[in-house]
Design goal:
Blueprint lengths: L11 H6 L4 H4 L4 H11 L3 E4 L7 H6 L4 E5 L2 H12 L3 H5 L1 E5 L11 E6 L10 H13 L1 E12 L3 H4 L14 E2 L5 E12 L4 E11 L5 E11 L3 H10 L2 E7 L14 E8 L4
Parallel strand pairs: 1-2, 1-4, 2-3, 4-5
Antiparallel strand pairs: 5-11, 6-7, 7-8, 8-9, 10-11
Bound molecules: S-adenosylmethionine.
Length: about 270
């Protein structure tokens, strides 16, 4: 099994900048996950917790949460952010370095989540089923698993823009005074394997005028709605709801939107 994390381990820069990147910083998903955590009562497991963007607000809301991630760099940023929190919040958090395809935390959770497409770093069907089976075995039967992936836009995955840097985002500055502009590029699309080879490209201008180009490259597996539903059913989950956005508007209300599955863990025995 590879140690690949979607480029989050091989690019320490990505972890350092992650919480400042505007589409990550402003992503409107935190409330949905915090509300679900409160409703569950905890403990919660976030699979692919990264820098704690969702995990820390969950702990601030009073819910014990374990974060699992394979990238030391992302976990280091999360640990540093936690140090800024009051002791009660820190004490609600466990961080574990581990692979979502193969982990055993020795306990069961009242809610498991995979916010912001972490599951799409599972490239093969074997990785996907290993991950879902591990999640299943960590959930109290009858409790909720939220799978959060994007809904592949048919126009987007066939657009005639391979190899082009597109999607310019607004410039921002880091606390160190580095100006950052970001673009994205798709180098290849394998429509049989449903894998996109994506690059997120950061152009930095340092305070001394030096310029730098940093590339976060990773493959991403896209899944269609019914494929995901079959995969979930195969791994012991009953789909209760599918939402198109983080305000819980129903699938079909916007296109492409997201695919946010609220599922219930079935007892396999
Ligand atoms: C897009 S980030 C999402 C982070 C966080 N959930 C959020 O919402 O901001 C994806 C995360 O998945 C992690 N990841 C990728 N592959 C993994 C694996 N095999 N096991 C555990 N974590 C993994 C990455 O290190 C990264 O932190």
């Amino acid at each position: 099994m590879s140690q690949d994390t979607g480029g989050y381990q091989s690019n320490p820069f990505v972890a350092q900048i992650y919480d400042q990147v505007i589409p990550y910083r402003d992503r409107p998903d935190v409330k949905l996950f915090v509300d679900a955590a409160i409703e569950s009562g905890g403990p919660v497991l976030e699979v692919g917790c990264g820098t704690g963007r969702v995990l820390i607000p969950t702990a601030q809301a009073g819910i014990p949460i374990t974060g699992l991630d394979l990238s030391d760099h992302m976990l280091d940023v999360c640990r540093a952010a936690l140090k800024e929190e009051v002791r009660e919040v820190q004490e609600r958090v466990d961080l574990v370095r581990g692979d979502m395809r193969d982990f055993d935390l020795g306990k069961k959770f009242a809610l498991v989540t995979t916010p912001f497409r972490s599951f799409q770093h599972m490239i093969s069907t074997e990785d996907q089923t290993n991950c879902l089976e591990n999640i299943h075995s960590h959930l109290v039967p009858g409790c909720t698993f939220i799978l959060d992936i994007f809904n592949p836009s048919l126009a987007g995955i066939t657009a005639d823009n391979l190899g082009q840097e597109v999607g310019a985002e607004p410039e921002f500055s880091t606390p160190e005074g580095i100006k950052v502009r970001r673009f994205n590029k798709t180098n290849q699309r394998d429509h049989l394997k449903q894998v996109l080879d994506v690059e997120l490209i950061y152009y930095l201008t340092h305070p001394d005028g030096r310029e730098e180009r940093i590339v976060h490259a990773f493959p991403m597996r896209y899944l269609f709605r019914y494929e995901a539903e079959h995969l979930l059913a195969r791994c012991g989950f009953e789909v209760l709801d599918v939402f198109a956005d983080y305000d819980k508007n129903p699938l079909g209300s916007i296109y492409p939107g997201e695919l946010i599955f609220f599922t219930r863990s079935l007892n396999k025995d």
